[in-house]
Amino acid sequence: MLLIKNGRVLDPASKTDALRDILLDGERIAEIAPQGRLAHADTRQSFDASGLIVAPGFIDMHVHLREPGQENSETIETGTHAAARGGFTVVCCMPNTKPVNDNASITRFIVDRAKAFGHVRVWPIGAASVGSKGEAISDIAAMREAGIVAVSDDGKPIASAKLARQIMDYCRTLDLPVIEHAEDVSLAAGAVMREGIASTRLGLPGMPAAAESVCVARDVQVAELTGAHLHIAHLSAKSSLAQVRFAKQQGLRVTCEVTPHHFTLIDEDVTYDSRFKMNPPLAAREDREALLDGLADGTVDAIATDHAPHEPALKDVEFDRAPFGILGSETALGLALEQLVHSGRLPLMRMVELFTTGPARVLGKERKLAIGEPADLTIFSLDRPWTYHVQESASKSRNSPFDGRSFTGGPVATIVAGKIVYKH
Amino acid sequence: MNLQAEASSLKKGETLLDTANNLNAMKPDCFVMRHSSSGAADFVARHLEIPVVNAGDGTHEHPSQGLLDALTIRDRKGTLKNLNVTILGDIAHSRVARSNIHLLGKFGARFTLCGPAMWVPRELEHIGPPGTPIRCVYRVEEALEDADVIIVLRVQTERLYEPSLSQNDYILLYQLNAERMKLAKPDALILHPGPINRGIEITPDVADGPRSAVLEQVTNGVSVRMAILYLLMIGAVEGATHPALEAKAKA
Asked: Which residue from A82, A212, B101, B181 could staple onto A394, CB 3.0 to 4.6 Å apart?
């Protein structure tokens, strides 16, 4: 039994914003009552959440755990540890491991490994095509039995409209969302950042916003053709967002996620340091503005980090030779509070949705603080000052552009299945 | 000590950083780097505490070329102030053009950038010092009128990741020849960073003619580079900072 007392409970599902005490019994929520009124007030184990927010456990639906095959950069253990420190209770890991997670054996390996060593829940995403090579469709149904919650060829777009159509048709009948890394490979070829004044000044080859939105256009048309659920990963461009907004207005099952680095940084922030290099790249000022609007007005369904660890030996090279990707788990909430809530862009409850009910709905699940629900909670502060030092990260890698950044508010305690997996 | 990437351990997979550290262990006074990655010199300078000279990094900058071009212009024209400078060719991929814009822009130059559309993106209008007039035109005739200085860039028609441009079309539309030079001022100066593709971006008679300062550029290059090495190595530039030393002081 664990009593979470004196906290300000924010639960989007029930629209609750009130001081409540919550009693956790084993892996479930046993009771919720107004502050001070719980029957078991004398419980042995309690957590005092005075001055803190208590929310349903956050979900990060886009991370790279690098296991199997790239354990120098991250493992399921270290990646989930970083997630716990970031306030996340669930992560969805992308299939671009070595070997690619395109069959039930690999899926089962990840699930078992996570059960044994994971700090938080791991819901794997399976590859859409074998090896994500864009030729044959992978064992999607078998992987679904083994526990995948979606399919994706992340790292790349699904190779052709025809394949996208077949996969979407198939996944519609299997009730799985198709998550697309939207990129037109020909427009993006050779590019290492967003094309614009910044890239021209730096002399670095850039990809235009159209590299993303051209592919979004293709996939939205195919989603309409098939009636499938299409989810756009790490959406970064105004022109892509406009298409998602239109698709939703047309009643299509199109959703999208945005990363904290895309709502915080822009192409003008890029220096020759590869900690600013990721795909899709940091976008233009007007794209960031559009994303902020979309986060507020509901066009964006979820915040997802695209946590992409790369060991220092890989990232500490010339900008154009470095792999794409940066860390994200531990700074997501701090950045969301800073850029979205403290700035007045959107209400705190809306931010909590973007981390909880938003991603849950995309994945066909629920996230709520109610009796009988899983005891996953994210407890955070709105005002505690802290500084992110990447050297202290639980990740094996160090590729974050936010090293040394100070935040106001951030994760304080993370509870998964009734156990405290992180405490500040 | 002279090192070529193809002949070095870089080919065996040694990283740039390891190469730089190994060479630095031989205690040189200074590094001069020409590298195909934009930002490579910056990257090395952030890790080594000795002077690093950027002898050309990717498509970013070629500072010594900018300086020797400026010296050549000043010698021939008597001034660097308020000149009409036309740059002709593949400006999008030119580190020389960027260095020319950064440097001459500080003296009030007005720029006309001219070439095929895919080599002259509009973003170039924004990369000069604030307030520098830069216009992009796609007809060479427009670019030559009123030009005091014409900088001709080498044409590389084969490029990775991009469909190649027709050499015949380039010659037809953009080649600097005697006929076109009639449109320019009589005392317009012609520069080229070299090496020249005779008969492609420039005809031999124009390249060898009285208005061309191509060989003077080469001579001036020697003195400019001597000056750079001298000033850096004796630490003569007041207030000059070094990225690695700054980072060390901050830590």
From this structure: A82
**Minimal CA separation from A189 to chain B, in Å:** 6
* Pick from A60-64, A146-150, B109-113, B164-168: least confident: B164-168
Strand ranges in A252-336 using DSSP code E only, listed in sequence order: 254-258, 302-303
Q: Helices A238-249 and A210-226: crossing angle, nearest 10°?
A: 20
CA angle, B163 then B97 then B175, to 5°: 60
A356 DSSP assignment: T
- The answer, for B73 touching chain A at a CB cutoff of 8 Å, is no
The H or E element spanning position B232 is helix B214-233
Q: Say whether pLDDT at B2 is over 90.
A: no
Instruction: State pLDDT tens for residues B153-173.
Output: 999 866 767 777 888 999 999
Size of interface A-B (CB pairs under 8 A): 64
Residue A234 main-chain phi, psi, to 5 deg: 30, 60
Contact A318 B40 (CB under 8 A): yes
In 3D space, the residue among A112, A35, A3, A7 whose CA is nearest the CA of residue A418 turns out to be: A3
Contact predicate A34/A18, CB 8 Å: yes
Task: Closest CB to A200: pick one of B16, B39, B124.
Answer: B124
Distance CA A302, CA B185 (A): 61
* Partner A contacted by B132 (CB < 8 A): no
ipTM at complex level: 0.85
Q: Judge: B16–A317 Cβ closer than 8 Å, yes or no.
A: yes
Q: Please give the model's pTM, rounded to 2 decimal places.
A: 0.92
Tell me the chain B residues in contact with residue A205 when contact means C-beta distances shorter than 8 Å. Answer: 59, 161
User: Hey, which residues does A164 pair with through a beta bridge?
Assistant: none
A190: which chain B residues are within 8 Å (Cβ-Cβ)? 160-162
CA distances in angstroms from B6 to A128, A395, B10, B11, B13, listed in the order given:
40, 36, 7, 6, 11
pLDDT tens per residue, range B47-90 = 888 889 999 999 999 999 999 999 999 999 999 999 999 999 99
Contact yes or no for A200 and B60 at CB 8 A = no
Distance CA A132, CA A156 (A): 8
| CATH topology assigned to domain A57-362 | TIM Barrel (3.20.20)
Across A190-287, the runs of DSSP E, i.e. the strands, are 193-194, 206-207, 230-232, 254-258
Q: How many helices (H) and strands (E) does chain A have?
A: 14, 18
For residue A232, report the phi and psi dihedrals to the nearest 5 degrees: -90, 120
CATH numbers and ranges of domains, chain B: 5-61+222-250 (3.40.50.1370), 64-217 (3.40.50.1370)
A272 and B161 within 8 Å at the Cβ level: the answer is no
Taking alpha carbons only, the member of B97, B63, B60, B124 closest to residue B192 is B97
Contacts of A318 in chain B (CB under 8 A): 16, 35, 37, 39-40, 43
Would you state the pLDDT for residue B250? Answer: 73
Q: Per the CB < 8 Å rule, is A318 touching B123?
A: no
User: Are A327 and A400 spatial neighbours (Cβ–Cβ below 8 Å)?
Assistant: yes
Shortest distance between the Cα of B10 and any Cα of chain A, in A, equals: 12
Distance from CA of A35 to the nearest CA of B (A): 47
Instruction: Write the class of the CATH domain A2-53+373-423.
Output: mainly beta
Q: Where in chain A is the domain with CATH 3.20.20.140?
A: 57-362
For A151-209, the pLDDT digits (tens) are 999 999 999 999 999 999 999 999 999 999 999 999 999 999 999 999 999 999 999 99
